[in-house]
Amino acid sequence: MSVPDEIRLLDERDPLRDFRDRFVAPDDENLVAYLDGNSLGRPPRATADALAGLVTDGWGSRLIRSWSEGWMDWPLTIGDRLAEATLGAAEGQTAVADSTTVCLYKLLRGAAAMRPGRDEIVGDRQNFPTDGYVVQAVADELGLTVRWIESDPAGGVTPEQVGEVLTERTAVVTLSHTAYRSAYLTDLPAITELAHRAGALTVWDLCHSVGSVPLALDEWGVDFAAGCTYKFLNAGPGAPAFMYVRGEHLDRFAQPIWGWMGHRRPFDMAPGYQPAPGMRRLLSGTPPITGLVGVAEGVALVAEAGIERIRAKAVELTELVVRLTDQWLAPHGVRLASPRDPGRRGAHVTVTHPDGPALSERLIAAGVIIDHRAPDAIRVGLSPLTTSFSEAYRAMAVFRDLVRHARRCG
Ligand SMILES: *Cc1c(COP(=O)(O)O)cnc(C)c1O
């Protein structure tokens, strides 16, 4: 399908256009567009080489000596690189380990324990399911009550809504920065300030922000944060997540999964847990070295591209998709379910249609990989390092042709 000059020009002028070639080209003739990089980022070519190198060199040749030759420090050194490239955080406050789910549990449990006597947690009912489960689990475990905010599924949590439930009983406020459903960008600095004024701590989920939206965790006063590396950081399926703990909290912070890798002296093999100083106390078991290889490569690409340029392209890509939604899809019953203001929108665009599930299936069958979110939403993910303007345009044209017939086909 041909693409208009206007769109081709956007690609020609894109300062990040060459990054596409730094990723493995899919061996799939049917593929028109991959618009799910916000769920599983594409593999950098460098990762294939680095993983092969790990097998032959570090693991294959240096064998167990590699632990003392660097591997032991990877969760913290790679965490520091991630912090510098994407979080706006100084070193010594970030570790890469576990899944986001486990990281959220560790942070929330530890944060709640730092506010003894307070018996409420504030959460968002529309947040990603795992976040809600973890909030409820920690609340049940500690005998706390959850004050759920009912946010707009096509928007997100506002500072006003947080203000309504914050009291002197609130121990922790835990929310996502970018809403996984709508891509709504929550006003993180304002909500963090509100929480602090009420004497509460904050735990932020950054899964859909890290690697797509510039962050300034140190400057914004964030207490704790966690997020995925396999989305916009392209670290690979199941790659370990990251945790951020504000430096001033570290000495007093205790996480609940005590393991030998978070111990002050793991190789003493001593009974009795003593947490390591600094971020190492966030670790529990043996670091996932194969997964950390992918994190290091993904972070290096984002650092090279620059988060400000990534953000600028995300805004342009989502603006294009919103414009084509209005022009081509809205007349056929497709509704925008993401913010119109690009300043309040992350790097995906969500639309809804009564035939959402069937349309999603047909889009994927036609080579446009999006994802479906029950009951009627379709998420169009626009990962600036791997998505071109032409690719997004072609995908939207396929969408237009399918939705024209959606009603007739049932
Ligand atoms: C993707 C995502 C997760 C995923 O958690 P895992 O433990 O990696 O499965 C959690 N929370 C949010 C908001 C997400 O977008």
TrEMBL record:
Pyridoxal 5'-phosphate binds at T100, T101, F128, P129, T130, D131, D205, H208, Y230, W260, T286. Its cofactor is pyridoxal 5'-phosphate. InterPro entries: Kynureninase, PyrdxlP-dep_Trfase, PyrdxlP-dep_Trfase_major, PyrdxlP-dep_Trfase_small. SUPFAM superfamilies: PLP-dependent transferases. The modification N6-(pyridoxal phosphate)lysine is found at K231. Gene3D superfamilies: Aspartate Aminotransferase, domain 1, Type I PLP-dependent aspartate aminotransferase-like (Major domain). It holds the Pfam family KYNU_C. It comes from the Bacteria. Keywords: Aminotransferase, Hydrolase, Pyridine nucleotide biosynthesis, Pyridoxal phosphate, Transferase. Its EC number is 3.7.1.3. The keyword Transferase applies. Belongs to the kynureninase family. Catalyzes the cleavage of L-kynurenine (L-Kyn) and L-3-hydroxykynurenine (L-3OHKyn) into anthranilic acid (AA) and 3-hydroxyanthranilic acid (3-OHAA), respectively. This is Kynureninase. It comes from Pseudonocardia eucalypti.
